[in-house]
Amino acid sequence: MLIGGFQRFSLIDYPCKICAIVFTQGCNFRCPYCHNPELVYPKLFSHPIPAEDIFAFLETRHGKLEAVVITGGEPTLQPDLVEFTKRLKAAEYLVKLDTNGSNPRILSELIEQKTVDYLAMDVKAPLARYPEITNSNADPVKIKQSIELIKHSGLDYEFRTTVVKSQLGKNDILAICKQIRGSKRYVLQKFVPVNVLDTNVLNAVIYADADLECLRDAVKSYVAECVVR
Ligand code: SF4
Questions:
Q1: Domain at 164, CATH number
Q2: Staple partner for 162: which of 34, 140, 189, 195, CB 3.0–4.6 Å?
Q3: What is this structure's pTM?
Q4: What is the C-alpha separation between 93 and 66, in angstroms, rounded?
């Protein structure tokens, strides 16, 4: 695992659990609004943190921490992700994975091996707009496969979209909701214009809180729960 950061404590990154967060290095997307350029651009990578340091820390936190969140970057790019999650489960931690959904093969393996407890997938755009919005060669077929895998995984999960008004209009959000129709939980994430991958996005038009509430009302028939954060 190429681990670029480790946060020892969080109350907000795993629903209702006290967790630590592992940040992996490397991503195959280039979302302009990304808040983690130091985990995306290899030239900005810090010296990786040894996995053994993290397991040694977790060993001392039983009864205090309940879960570990693996985020990035894109964690499914790490060749030893499955082994890493197996070790976390063996250490009796709940595991949440944040993913961009580009690697359904690894997601399928994690689900089959029961080494994750919660999946959070960013749904960046309507499928046809993926390459444009992610500024990459994202494969919409794989994104669709990941959505279906997660929906039928039997695990806790959420889909979420960072909404930049000048990138995604109401019809785009509705198209995304049709892609995830029937899902448990959908999160509309407000774009915060700080520390981004592409500074051009700092001037982007963003949704006001009232607009986000309207969007939430517009999509609530597609999903069991829609929240704004
Ligand atoms: S926001 Fe986009 S570029 Fe940044 S880590 Fe997530 S998928 Fe990669």
A1: 3.20.20.70
A2: 189
A3: 0.96
A4: 6
